[in-house]
Amino acid sequence: VPAAATDTLVLRYNQWFPSQHWSQKDGLHKYFDEIEAVTEGRVRVRPSAKPIVPPTKNYQAVSNGIVDLAWGPHGYTPGAFPLSEMVEFPFSVYDAGISSVAYHRTFDKFFKPAGMHDDVVTLAVHVTSGGNLHMKDKPILKIEDFENAKIRVQTSVVAEAIQGIGAVPISGSLNELREFLSRGIVDGTSLSDELLTGFKVDSYIDHITQIPGGLYSSSAFVLMNKNKWNKISPVDQKAIMSISGEKLAYRMGSLWHKNDLIARKLLQDRLGKNYKVADEALIKGLEEAFFNGRVAWLDKAKATGVDIAEANAFYEEQTNQITQQQ
Amino acid sequence: MEMVIAFVALLALLFLRVPIAVATGVVGLVGLAWFQGWSPALGQLGIIASETVLSYEFAVIPLFILMGNIISRSGLAEELYVATNALIGHYRGGLAITTIAASGGFSTFCGSSFATAATMSRIAYPPMKKFGYSDSLATGSIAAGGTLGILIPPSIALVFYGIMTETDIGQLFVAGVLPGILGVCLYVCAVLYVVHIRGEKSGLGKKASIKERFAAIGQLWAFSLLVLLVLGGIYMGFFTPTESAGVGAVGAIAVTLIRGKFKWSSLTGALEETAYTTVSLIAILIGSLVFANLVNISDLPYHIVNWINSMDLSLLGVLVVILLIYFLLGAILESMSMMLLTVPVFYPIVAEMGMDLVWFGIIVVVATEISLITPPVGLNVFVLKSVISDVDIRTIFRGVMPFLVADLLRLALIVLFPIISLALI
Amino acid sequence: MKYSLLSLIELLCSKITMIVLSLMAAVTFIDVCCRVFFETSLGFTYELVGIFLAVVFYAGLFNVHRKNKHIRIDLFDKFYKGRLNTLVSWFGYVLEVAFFSAVVYMLFKQMEDTRMFQERFMFLGFAKWYILLAMGVLASVALIGLVCTSPYAEKEKG
Ligand code: NA
Ligand code: NA
């Protein structure tokens, strides 16, 4: 690490997610080290000792200068970022690294010009690995199994969809999930496999139904405050951007994918035949369950002025293209 | 340097009788404005004043206090006190020991040190006064006894710690049992010391007949039922600690109804008092969180961590340093905000050194407990003062001192012998 | 006239606080019962209880202001006598009014942000800014209560 220059600009990062989680330790904190390296120590990022604002306020806090940098999911403020819900619908994220790059390109081409994230500097947007169905005692193998099942969900898109097929969606933070599962407040949860092991709740789960492409995916952002950005010299701005954007999206997404595969292997070994892949009938049923939500979302998204059909097509096309390149 | 000014300013405002919520809030706000400008500073106040209050997690505060208030009006704490008193009240210092034991028992399910202190001061102070106990021993044992409930499960503090460090809350509760009992024993020793060695004034209570003793113990069925409901429910996995507070509040109403002691006026009285306590505590929470953000923005935790790392200490050395910091902070900070502030800073350090986080949690909560009775800001002492207004606050602090020594001894034992915390898990 | 209006607000705030507090306990209890006995659950309990807490706090604030119930340290009270007592009391009062004015202002600001963001409650479904509006209004009423209350002064003992 180069010695700190006297004119070092120290940026504060809102550390609300557990700092020892790999997404922070191996992902963002490494990225922050690189920022310091490429700016030769002129810009340095310091994570806060405790959350300065709750995860629901990341965007607001960056936009009015409470913190300088933040990472977090769009879904924590339901309704605020309708366009981000494009990547949250099911069956689309097979490799979070690839999808993240495609998503970032879509953001640059369609969403950013339409004014999404106008109050901040966007360093990257990315997706997380697809969520599966993790159940405690009773597996969900067919649509009827959703009847009266209490499932903790991550996004409102999923909440509405599974409510339509008889399930009882329950909210609550990831931190509370262990309590929820151990006390039987929920029968299961929908998460990516790696969050299940990452938050050490996998011991409560005995049945997993893998949903190829994910029951949902989360859209996430890495943001910087505009004023602080303008304090950085153009040379350093360029240096930071050279490791941000698509690169950062890929870094976060692929890290997610890598850890998801590790967790999947771990869970498959432990659960054996109780780790199942959803069959066609279940997928079809879920598709129907999400139908109304998709229609309603299209209207909301159109209201932002984006040609959402075109954006969606671009996202899919990019995903396929990058998949073939690899 | 700025932070030295901030701490001095905070102390000055507190001594100038500015409400704690306002003092911490104003110093925090001005400090944040100094570092970041007014707009971000006020922005943080706005987020804290809306999001903190709009959260489920903090609902545990009014619910536990409500349960405590209903119980305190149902005569349950009184019966607990009478029963213990029938057994040991007639020994020298027996009433003070009774107070300690009843506080421990009451707070087992009450969960709130404030509610315990407030309730016990109503129940235990008059008899101690009547039998000639000195003000300092009487109030000291009540203020200190109230802190026992912070650790003895169900414990809000352990819930918060568990959430922040992702440690199993059930395990934390089990781990809290032995150190909790140890705390009661050491407090009893403190009372014995005060009356036998220091010879402080303490009259003898009336000796109860065998029949009276059995009758008193028989009265305890309601108490046992509530313990069973609240603790049993948590351990059996029927509900979360937060929910147990809601169940406990409704359960307390039900018990008073069954025993025919229900009065509409006690319910409304309990609700009204709960509202006052809740509002003043959440106001303090808001102020403290603003101040905590200032501490955070000023990079004080970062420098502390660097400093601790630079000394290259053993785990014991690090713990001693951390506890010293707790003691200093505990002098002026309210316990909840102290936890919110320090746990995220310290737990990664000790975790990296391979320390068991359940054990660390018990240490942190005991250290936090102590802060409730250390001057100048000892919230339990203030609660007591608000109920018994004619006793001088310095008298209470003087009375608390022997218990403070007992607490420090307990802390040392828990640090030196992890088995005390980890034996049951 | 002025005083009767204040006491009317006092009564109203106190009733709101007490009712909502009871509801909070009741909803938690019912949710647990539904789960334990009927295997069903009210998905919105989390959000509802949070809202209840907000209402309890800001509605209760009025009476805490009116009755000077904020927790403060009276360690040096015996030094504050006569004019010094008045001075110290007014100093605290001004800070108090300033701080709670800032809270009111920021609540409305926060409401505006939330409205622009179109944030919604995930399970209750309605827009979040309605609740922030209610919090802002209650906090304003509480502030009026504070302004109409004379500064806290420890009664001279005698
Ligand atoms: Na307790
Ligand atoms: Na203290």
Structural notes for this entry:
The complex is a heterotrimer of chains A (326), B (425) and C (158). Chain A starts with 8 loop residues before the first strand and ends with a helix. Chain A has helices at 22-38, 58-63, 96-111, 156-164, 177-182, 193-198, 226-230, 234-242, 246-271, 280-303, 308-325, and strands at 9-13, 43-47, 69-73, 121-127, 132-135, 150-152, 168-170, 188-191, 207-210, 219-224, 275-277. Chain A is α/β, with parallel strands linked by helices and 326 residues long. Residues 1-5 of chain A have low confidence and may be disordered. Chain B is 80% helix and 0% strand. The longest helix of chain B is centred in the middle third of the chain and has 34 residues, at 264-297. Chain C has helices spanning 2-38, 45-66, 82-117, 129-147. The mean pLDDT of chain C is 85. With 158 residues, chain C is an all-alpha fold. At the B-C interface, helix 1, helix 2, helix 3, helix 4 and helix 13 of B face helix 1, helix 2, helix 3 and helix 4 of C. Residues 330-331, 371, 374, 377-378 of chain B line the site of one sodium ion.
